[in-house]
Amino acid sequence: MPAGRASPQPPVPGRRLLVPQPRPGRAPLHRWRRRRRRLLGARLLLSGRSPLLQRRQHPHGAPPQSPHPAAPRGSRLPGPAGPQQRPAQPGRQPPQRRHLAQSALRDGRLRRDVTAMGARRALHFVFKVGDRPQSARFYRELLGMSVLRHEEFEEGCKASCNGPYDGKWSKTMVGYGPEDNHFVAELTYNYGIGEYCLGNDFLGITLVSSQAVSNAKKMGWPIREVTSGVFETEAPGGYKFYLEDKEQPKKDPVLKVTLGVSNLQNSVNYWSSLLEMKIYEKDEEKQRALLGYAENQCKLELKAIGGVVDHGTAFGRIAFSCAKEELPKIEALMKKENQKILTPLVSLDTPGKATVQVVILADPDGHEICFVGDEAFRDLSKVDPNGAKLLDDAMASDNSEEWFAAHNMKKAAA
């Protein structure tokens, strides 16, 4: 009899043998022990002490040792080691528990992915531009943004994305990275409109980029320091940008969009209570509030202007994404609360790309708000590597200026 192994006991007459004899060449794995190990694995998963889960939580170091170490495949639970038993491998799980843990991890990743997809995100702000070449130069050469995609349309948008115009128009998305994790600008160009009238609704976009400050100075673009380390400049059309003279961060450098409001408390109530934004800051003395959906996203700053908000004809639109299932709920909530809906839930087609669903709202001061289904929008908003070329080709083939000049006319001023 090998050392360290107890001799088998003879069966007691009239009583069933509870402990089966070990099979030759293998360590005994009794059913009650296997069941106990499965139950223990489930308990460790529920308590978060599973070694596999701990390795994921501590990727750069050894995970804390579980008070119930898992036994390796083919080995016995703690006890006298037999000659056929393999050395213990700390942290390795038996197949049943390992498969259960892997399934739980897959489920956890799925839940996190669903949560991430369903969470609301700040996407972009829409600017109407009358001078497309100069606007492209400002966003690309001065701000240092890239063309993410460019699309041409022969007729007006069903959701009035290009404003109240029915003719040919284009949409160019520019930014520091994809809309999955960056706030970008949408440049809407109507071929027959040369300029728009600004109101007091849009007060500016703030971003961090010392390179943009340097670019503006090199290009001779008008720029002035309004506070220490913060410079103000204007895009073509008069849209204000505030540039913090600091090194551009690796994450999204766009910090906030500032909109004017007539009554700060009413606006804060609308955005926080109805649209579920978190209030990050509120300054009653300066009559401003900072809101957003997440710490790492571009924020919305509301600033009281002490009067009625005038949107002019250059009025923009701020866009957010949410789970597609939320869109009818948002629309129903606005109807219930007697809030303005500019465009009821509608599907928008882009040739060759995903069809998205949107609902367009207006806040108490008439600021346009677009909510779009997140899943389809992620597909639609994929960066097009040919976007810059498509924009350049469109600008090169745009002879609208020559046409108006040949007819002794000027483009319309909206």
How many helices? The count is 10
> For the record, what CATH class of the largest domain applies?
Alpha Beta
What is the number of E strands? 18
Characterize the main sheet.
8 strands, mixed
Low-pLDDT stretches:
15-19, 66-85, 103-117
> Helical content, roughly?
25-40%
Distance between the termini: 100 Å
What series of H and E elements makes up the topology?
HHHEHEEEEEHEEEEHEEEEHEEEHHHE
Principal-axes shape call: globular
Q: Specify the CATH homologous superfamily of the largest domain.
A: 2,3-Dihydroxybiphenyl 1,2-Dioxygenase, domain 1
Computed CA radius of gyration, to the nearest angstrom? 31 Å
User: What's the structural domain tally?
Assistant: 2
Summary keywords:
single chain; 414 residues; alpha/beta; 2,3-Dihydroxybiphenyl 1,2-Dioxygenase, domain 1; 28% helix
Outline the structure in words:
- The chain is globular, with a radius of gyration of 31 Å.
- Helix 1 runs parallel beside helix 3.
- Strands 2-3-4-1-14-17-16-15 form an eight-stranded mixed sheet. An eight-stranded mixed sheet has the order 7-8-9-6-10-13-12-11. The chain has a two-stranded parallel ribbon with strand order 5-18.
- The protein folds into two domains: 47 residues, no CATH class; 295 residues, 2,3-Dihydroxybiphenyl 1,2-Dioxygenase, domain 1, CATH 3.10.180.
- By secondary structure, it is an alpha/beta fold.
- Interacts with NUDT9.
- Keywords: Mitochondrion, Phosphoprotein, Repeat.
- Its main location: mitochondrion.
